[in-house]
Amino acid sequence: MTRSPETNSGTSLLGPLFSPRSVAFYGASNDTAKMAGRPFHFLLKHGFEGRAYPINSNRDTVLGHKAYPNLRDLPECPEHVFVLLPTDGVEAAIAECAAAGVRVATVFAGGFAEAGAAGVARQLRLVEIARSAGMRLVGPNCLGMINPHDKLALSAANVLELDRLIPGNITVISQSGSLTGTILSRGRDLDVGFAKLISVGNEADLTVGEIGLACVEDPATEVFLLFLETFRDRDRIAEFAGAAHAAGKPVVAYKLGRSEAGRTAAVSHTGALVGPDAAVDAFFSAHGFMRVDLFETLLDIAPLVAGRRPPAKPLAKTNAGVSVITTTGGGGAMVVDRLGRQGLNLVGPSADTIARCAAKGISVQPSTMVDLTAAGIRHDIVVEAIDSVLTNPETEAVVMVAGSTAQFYPHLSVNPIAEFTGWQKPLIAYIVPPAEDSRRMLIGKGIAAFRSPEATADAIAAFFNWRSPRVATASVDVAVANDLLAELARGRLADGQLNEWDALCVFGALGLDIVDTDVIRDLDADLSGTTDFPVVVKVLAAGLAHKLDAGGVVLNIDGAAALDAAVRQVRDNVARAQPEIELDGVLVQRMEQGLVEVLVGFVRDPQVGPIVTVGMGGVYAELYEDTAVRLAPLSSEEAHEMIEEVRGLVTIRGFRGQPRGDVDALAEAIVAVSKLAGLTPDVAEAEINPLIVRAEGNGVDAVDGLSRLEEG
User: Fold this and answer.
1) Mind listing the pLDDT tens digit for each residue in 300-315?
2) Residues 6+ apart with CB under 8 A from 591
3) Which domains does the chain have, with CATH numbers?
4) In 3D, which of 242, 223, 327 has the Cα closest to residue 283?
5) What is the largest CA-CA distance in the chain?
6) 3-state secondary structure of 320
7) Average predicted confidence (pLDDT) for the chain
């Protein structure tokens, strides 16, 4: 006879997910050589103090404990059930769990959404069954979860053959089951403990974001580490990051997808300029994540960030000063080199540091690092050097590089580092060659210690690029642009693409200034009345994104006869190059000149949603690879930040006495483009290239526009 499950957390998800009082293993095997036999074995091995029930209809006992033929025969309804059955038996087991009142079920088997259409259908049925009963589902295709504080090993991860679980303050949420085990194993080697670890599998129901939100309430969790392959629920992930920030619990993420292979095709320059990884960087930055480049950094950064808040300003604005102290010239130089490549400012020895070391008999030379040399490998000298550097107002973080003495004589070069535990400024160590006992001691004192110069620099750069979640932008009125776009969408489109004039009109409705333009629909019309020369002629066609490539543009036309000839020329060129294109006419625009040409683009990224890109404009936009990216819509402050980040735009900021451009007008234009995020039907991508920036006070003009709507 089943009964309602006990809970120790009210209506919270945290209790039944990570701290159940009773668990069951549906399909538990008596053979620990099999995957279905290991989870129950691991639970027993690590001393779970709650009630555990193996379910196996073919046996009376499993691993010496009474086995039950099904869930209905248990003496109680367990809070959490780990379903270990093969794929074809999972649905019936989930239905039985739902009917019994189970709070959380975890599904180990694969063969669901990752296995094609039939698997997707199977997965949807599981979710429907679970949600109809108010039961939460982890997985499928999931290794399970671990809570060292409660001695809960509800997982099939082989790393649980380790002799013990170490409780700690780190919660790991991973889309890879095997890498959850890797992190646990590495932590065990360094005596690093964990609050929670979970492999989320296919995230059919519970996602990274919702699990993270539950764990924000966990008093044992102080730092989150995420291993991500994709975003399945970006809104909830963003909500989780905001809640973690409010609770003072840093979130560090390692995400796959940095390679160029991830880029997707698009008709605009923006689509080529902004690969998925740049969009992900923008998402992480906007929502208060720290992103690390190296998997090695993911675990080792935890002591650096625990209990800290984001720096007041990001790295791009502070040129953060980092001091390196070293007892090994080569090791220190490797760190200096890596820090420099990350854009960090190296602060050499101050006059105070030189004087205090000299008083100890050590001559420190002006350099990019404080090199104590072999003569300085003494406890009192290392303490003096660290103290002098930490008190230097130009220094915002310190790296202590210890050489081989860290392995054989740690009292000389490593123990002094531990004396500065809890210092306000970040202090971290790089030990070369690796000395794991010394690293273990420092980490135990709350000081991050790294095995490589790459990870050292990666961690510091991630910390100084860390920022608080951005404040949501106020809602804006886009009714006029919305009405216009809806009307244009009912007209003739080419694969969802507006022609250039229609796109420019949408930008105009958002508040941008458009260059003086005549739309010529009749290509045989008399154009002798045009007097505002010089002009440019461009073909007008919804299906032609890159007019120049098809010979559809003629510049610097200085008279009526030349204008007539240019109209015929662009028409004939397009007819030869792309005969399938039907022209809507031509545009005749006044030739414009400003201080600089800028590209402002919009893309609805499939992973993170709408983003805006700013870069150098013109026909060579894709060659510069000098861009800034933000989530849309954005604020004026964010737009100004983007302008500062694009190196090529330094000229319009008054660089070396050059005339300032109208930076404020450019920022307003960027904000206006970002409002495309709120239009309906959805804009898939849009771009102004070029946007002409004039001298300060004279505004900007959109010259060429592109817009493509989402299909359907």
Assistant:
1) 999 999 999 999 776 6
2) 534, 535, 536, 555, 556
3) 311-465 (3.40.50.261), 470-514+594-712 (3.30.470.20), 516-591 (3.30.1490.20)
4) 242
5) 99
6) coil
7) 91
